[in-house]
Design goal:
Layout lengths: L13 H11 L4 E3 L4 H18 L6 E3 L5
Parallel strand pairs: 1-2
């Protein structure tokens, strides 16, 4: 097992989120907070940038806020 310390802001902007994805190379991404249009924009940006960098399209799931 490999355990590493990772520090990031829960209130990161798109640039910070993209840096985190680049660092972690996740197999899946779940976007859970934000306005629907902005979450969709970020989903497309992630697909464009990391779909080719990592070889495969990363599954990106959106969970819309429910009030």
């Amino acid at each position: 097992m490999n355990i590493q310390y990772l520090s990031f802001s829960a209130h990161a902007d798109a640039k910070g989120i993209m840096q985190l994805i680049r660092h972690c190379e996740p197999k899946n991404i779940l976007l859970v907070h934000g306005e629907a249009a902005k979450m969709e924009f970020l989903r497309k940006k992630i697909e464009q940038e990391f779909g080719t960098l990592m070889g495969d399209i990363i599954p990106i799931f959106l969970k819309m806020n429910i009030k």
